[in-house]
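User: Before I run my own analysis I want an independent prediction to cross-check against. Here's the chain; please return only the structure tokens and, at the end, one sentence I can use as a sanity check.
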Amino acid sequence: MLLVNNDSQTNTCFLIWLYSMENIKLKLPMSLRAIKLKDFQKYISIIDKNPDANTDFLEIKLMEIFCGLRYDKIKDLPVGIFDETVAIVNGLFQSKTPLVNRFKLIGSDNVEVEFGFVPNLDKMSMGEYIDLTNYIKETDDLHKAMAVLYRPIHPSYEGKKSYRISSYQGTDAYSEILKDMPVDIALGAKVFFWTLGIKLSALMTNSFQQEFQEIQTLSEEEKKGLIASMHGIKNSMLLQEAKHSELMKLL
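Assistant: Structure tokens:
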């Protein structure tokens, strides 16, 4: 017998499988909004660390991480329920992830904080840009990249269309709490930055090329090195965008 209990607030439903006189409670995410970034990072880390792992191993890990089941419970599930659950979760990662400008999180102190996406990427400081391009490359560091792209909105802007976010003080302040952000928001921001960031990188490179020519304290070799670094960031984003697309196909 299969009982279903929906939770609209968390975008999950609980499938309670009554099997062999024992209740097995399976937490099934109904959308990516129900999956936390830290759980996605944990699963991708397992994939990366086990390149030769078979499908059964990865699917069991998927059930453990995203459905909250221990292995001793998973092995008792009927094959049909197991396969259908894996298919549903894998299907979620084929969903579109549009940019979300604002979202709320409840911290460990039980205080709700609203985060906002950087309003103007083209006004981002060079320090923010370098941190972002460094952290956005690897899934393990994605929460740090999100701490650059998303910061708390000033309370006076609550309920208003426009908003102002906190100034950038490095990633330490908010990266840990952002591990709990919905993974669809993180992936949407990542793809948005790659799409716009490639264009932004080209614009910044051209701008820096002009500015460097006016800086007398830099040698010609140093100027060329900085410009080459900017071109490298652009090429890196193109490569990472391609890797992300391939990764999503594997899920």
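Sanity check: The chain is about 50% helix and 15% strand.
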